[in-house]
Structure formats: structure tokens, C-alpha cells
Amino acid sequence: MRLCTRRRSRTLRLWLLIVFLSLHLLVVSLVLSISHTSCELHSYPDIQTSISFSVQNASASTSTMTAAGSDTQEVEMDITKKFFFLLASIIFLIKTKQQSRIRSTKRGFSKKNAGGFRYKPRGDCFFFAKVRQLCFLCSCKQTLVSTRLTGALQKSGGTQLKLVMSFPNYGQALFKPMKQERHEETNVNLYYFSDFERHNAEIAAFHLDKILGFRRVPPVVGRLVNVIKEIKDITTDHKLVTTFFTSPVGNACFYGQCSYYCSTEHAICGRPLKIEGSMAAMLPDLSFAPRRSWRSPWRRSYSRSKLAQWEMDSNYCDSIKTTPPYDRGTRLVDLIDMSILDFLMSNMDRHHYETFEKFGNDTFLIHFDNGRAFGRHSNDEPSILAPLVQCCRVRRSTLLRLHLLSLQSYRMSDVMRASLSQDPLAVVAPLLTEQHLSALDRRLETVIKTIHDCLQQHQHHSDVIHDDIGDYPGA
């Protein structure tokens, strides 16, 4: 009698789960129907924004981004199929769980002595999380680009002007105004720590990080901001207000207060009222999600005459490998991933990085503050790759992604061009010039060659390749 009752209760729970997941299918359908409209960022009154969110064939689209209704239907059909496959997989897992419990009971095991039933989620379960993540990213980008601004304060610290912008829902974003034209290169006589912070570099870094599969740069979107209505009229920073003026040609300008380039000679000016800038999502408050700042082992000296230790010692990595937190876990390969990202976009200003304290050493690095990237397309800085060259260690997933982006059909410059075309500021002008896009392909070849040189220097590939995704097919 008890056995029949248990079977009925299990069957009832199974059917309730099926009904529950069916309701979720309806919710997913509604979310997708909304996301197709919400992911298309609203345009400003004075510019027409035509942006496609179809990223399935982004690498193949090298000239224009088209949003066809047939592509949308195919995506929805594919998502529906995957959802039903997920449903079948969960039912299979439930049956497997029941059978395992029956076997455990027959063998004399219980939750108390076996620690309960545990199973690793299938890859299909990851799909539903991805759908939710995509919708959140769309909503976040939509907020950054079109939500009304209610406050503007100059951010303390740092060397150059940046503003903390507030939204009606108490959210905040970091605004970096345009300081340099896209076609301009960094002056060769400037040191890396004196370079401008570029708004388009922040945006491009977010897209490049996503293309490389790291996804460690907080969302960044370009936005046009009215200097008077959206900064001066809503700020409570009296020191910032005193720096506003009108240029001889009638443009609204301001310069703020900072260590570098905060003067009338380097003022931020509208055309005549609106300025371009990058809007970056702020990280959670430290009281809610404490973070720790780490000094990079490959930090530069930030001196005009001195060299850092890693620049003088070719065996520098040997000591780093035995120093916490780089002596265990994935912290070292995380740092090398970051160095590859920095080399591709020519960012020499990586002095610190941050992690969330909650996860201890089993965490990830946050790749933010990339404003000094993409300064020069005519020159590659090999010293940025020092962590990779000296440690000869890299994730297999990173290597496979780099190989993929080196193929003609998935060329990095083409994928990057297509991805950047989704940003609202792309209708004003391409966020990266063709010279910068070509430099990405050139630097990618350098990274792949460096990894293959490491493989030739070591007898076993496992000494170089950090195995993180299964059987390695070969070097």
C-alpha cells in the first residue's frame, strides 16, 4: 500500500513539474517577443539608429547588418525546440534520480549515509540560463542608452574626467566623454600613463572581451548626452558647474577637475550641445558585493626612467607560480587571458585588477577600465604579452577561440566590425577605424605564434595547455 502511494505521489510531482515547465515555455515566448523589441536600442531625435540584434551570423556579415523577419522566426523555432529538449532532459533526469534512489535503498544507502542524491546539470540546462542572461543584457543596455538621467557627479579619483550618471530607478553608470577623434593616434612622445582615455576604447573593449568568450567586461554602450540639460542642469557638484563655458563658436563646454587634461585647452565640448561618450554599468555596491583590488604582478613601473622587475628578469614567472594566489586554481591563466585581451587592443595601463571576495580564489577577474586601449594601430607592444611569454600557459578554450577567429570565415576584424555596428554611436561613425580592425588580425597572429612557440619549447602539451573543456584534439 505504501509503495503504491509513493508511486502515485511521484507521478503527481512529475506531472506538476511538466505543467510548471509548460508555463515557463509561455513565459519564455513572451520574453522573447519582448526582447526582440527591447534589444533594439531607441534612437535619438536627431539621428536615425538602425541596429540589428541578429548575432547568429555576425562574423559572415562584413558590410551591413540586416534584420530579417525570417531570421527572427528561425531563432524562435530553435529556442522552442531547445526548450522541449530541455523538458525531455529534465524528465529523464527525474526518472534517473528516482531509479538511483530505489537502487540506493536496495543497497542500504540513505540520504544520511550517502550525502543525498547529487547530479551535475546537463548542458541543456545551461541554455535556459543563457536566454535569461541575454534578456538581462538587453535590458541593461537599453537602460544605459535611453533612460532619462537624473543626476551627474564627477567621479573622485583617477587621472581624467569621468562622471557618475544616475537614473530614476537609483541605478548608476560611469560616463566617459569623447576626448579624441576616432582616426587620431596617440602621440608617440606620450608615455602610456599620460595617454587619453577614449570613450570608443571602452565600448570596443566590451565587444572584444565578449567575442573572445571571456565576458568579464561590464556592459558598455555609447550614448549622446546633452551637455546642458543632462549634465549642468542636473548636477549638484558645484565645482563641476564652475567649469562650464561657451566656446567662441557657440559650443557648450566644460572641463571638470582632475590630474590630467582638465583645463580650457582640453575641454569637453558639445556639437553644439551633445557629446559622445561611453556609458558603463556600475558594479554592485561594495556593501552588497565586496571586491578586492589586486596589484598586477606584471604592473609597469609608471616611471620615465625605471623598469619593473618582470622587464629585467626573464624567469620572473617562476616566482609568481609559487606565490599565492597564483600557485593554485585558475588565477594565473585568468591573468594570461587578460594579457591577451590587452595585447589585442594595445592596452598598457593594466596596473590592478579586481575580484569579488565572496568566491575566494575560485573567482574571475573583472576586466574594466580600458579607456587607454586602441591608442595606436600602427604599432604593436610585445611587452604586454609578457605573462604569456614568460609563463607559457594558456587555457585550451582560449586557444581554440583564437584559432577560430583566425579563420577566414570567422576573421576577428569581421566579427568585431559586425558587433560594433550594433552600438548606437556606430551610426555617427564606425567606433574603430579599419586600421584598428586590421591591427586586431595582425596581433592575433602574434598571439597564436607565441603559443605555438611555447608548445615547441615543452615536451608535453599539458605543460602549456590548461585543460578546461575536455579532450584536446591537438596543438
Automatic annotation (TrEMBL):
User: Which superkingdom?
Assistant: Eukaryota
Q: Does the keyword Transmembrane apply?
A: yes
A Pfam family in this protein?
Fam20C
Q: What UniProt keywords apply to this chain's record, in alphabetical order?
A: ATP-binding, Disulfide bond, Glycoprotein, Golgi apparatus, Manganese, Membrane, Metal-binding, Nucleotide-binding, Transmembrane, Transmembrane helix
The UniProt entry annotates the active site at: 349
Q: Where does Mn(2+) bind?
A: 197, 369
Q: Does the keyword Disulfide bond apply?
A: yes
- Which cofactors are reported in the record for this sequence? Mn(2+)
Q: Please tell me one Gene Ontology term that the record gives under cellular component.
A: Golgi apparatus
In its UniProt record, which GO terms are filed under biological process?
Answer: enamel mineralization
Q: Where is the FAM20 C-terminal domain?
A: 244-462
Entry binding sites for ATP? 160, 176, 197, 280-283, 354, 369
Q: Where would you find the membrane-spanning parts of this chain?
A: 12-34
Family classification: Belongs to the FAM20 family.
Xref: PANTHER family: DENTIN MATRIX PROTEIN 4 PROTEIN FAM20, FAM20 C-TERMINAL DOMAIN-CONTAINING PROTEIN
Protein known as: Extracellular serine/threonine protein kinase FAM20C-like
